[in-house]
Design goal:
257 residues; mainly alpha; Calcium-transporting ATPase, transmembrane domain; transmembrane; ATPase_P-typ_TM_dom_sf; membrane
Length: 257
């Protein structure tokens, strides 16, 4: 919801919802973030790197050193990793260049901080057996945060690579389709400018007034270049009558307004 009050740089060209571009970006970001989650899971299950370097532990470790992939603590680690990196993605997608070159609004930044603070608290204290998750230590929480920061930084290069390849191709194809449509229209029936309905209504309203004045002038002999002088009061009275008559006409035909 805080995206509605975010401050972003507008595009240099008119934009439209292009589903092909949206799906292409979503696929690229999704594959990259999936790789970050799978890589973390493999390191946890297949190595003792985190245990040896940071002194963290898991609940279910077999005598031969193997780890249970259904360990509730591993479930919690995966939850926290996905929650943080998925929401952090918004800082990449909202910017044209590097994410740190376009400062987000305080509302968006605050929403991210509050949401991930809550996620970290849940990861530390939520021992909910029915969800098959269990609270993890502060060491694991710190590991997840550092892991996500490492994987977050190259996301801008994923965006740039997409713009330079697939997105560029999709936009060129879209421009070619538009050019073909324009050429097809130019070879068809030529377009002729017609008078708008509003213009025709105004013309019908005021042409009658002008023709009436001309007929009245001819009937009383004011023609042949003769000049007519009217007092200011007469002109105001004539303008008032004309305005009142026009108002009555518009009132009878509301669609003309």
């Amino acid at each position: 919801m805080t995206l509605s009050v975010d401050r972003v740089l507008p595009s240099n060209t008119p934009d439209s919802w292009d589903l092909a571009e949206i799906f292409a970006y979503a696929l690229a970001y999704g594959l990259y973030l999936t790789m970050s989650t799978i890589a973390l899971l493999i390191i946890i299950l297949k190595t003792n790197f985190f245990e040896e370097k940071f002194g963290v532990t898991l609940d279910k470790v077999y005598p031969d050193g193997a780890k249970d992939p259904n360990d509730y603590m591993i479930h919690m680690i995966m939850y926290l990793q996905v929650a943080i990196i998925s929401q952090a993605l918004i800082f990449v997608t909202r910017s044209h260049g590097f994410f740190f070159m376009e400062m987000p609004s305080y509302a968006l930044l605050g929403a991210f901080c509050v949401a991930q603070l809550i996620s970290s608290i849940i990861a530390a204290y939520a021992n909910w057996g029915f969800t098959q998750i269990k609270g993890i230590s502060g060491g694991w929480i710190g590991i997840v945060w550092v892991w996500n920061i490492i994987w977050f930084l190259p996301l801008d290069f994923v965006k740039f690579a997409m713009k330079a390849t697939i997105i560029k191709y999709l936009r060129q194809r879209h421009e070619q389709q538009i050019a073909q449509e324009v050429r097809g229209q130019s070879q068809g029936v030529p377009m002729a400018r017609t008078t708008s309905r509003v213009g025709s209504i105004h013309e019908s309203l005021y042409s009658n007034r002008v023709s009436f004045i001309k007929r009245a002038a001819r009937s009383v002999g004011f023609k042949g270049g003769k000049k007519v002088h009217l007092s200011q009061n007469e002109l105001q009275r004539f303008a008032s009558i004309q305005a009142a008559h026009t108002g009555q006409t518009l009132a009878r035909h509301a669609s003309r307004q």
